[in-house]
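pasting for ref
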Amino acid sequence: MMTITLTMAPETQRKLVERATRVGQDIETLACELIERSLNSEPTLDDILAPFRRQVAESGMSESELTAFFEEARDEVYRDKQGAGR
């Protein structure tokens, strides 16, 4: 068994206390379970794509602009592969 000290943002601490109260556990047990669950699970596709989706939303790109961007990138890769095969 290991004992550690965590420093967290006040908002994170508030959420942890609220959840522990809601589920009827002490904070230490809940924190340990959350850490173990996180370490024992693989990220979902939504987890993996979250940073990209956030960047797209912050960029202000429309859906059609994003589609055009990917189509151009795809076409460029295709052209490069065709040129390399000659």
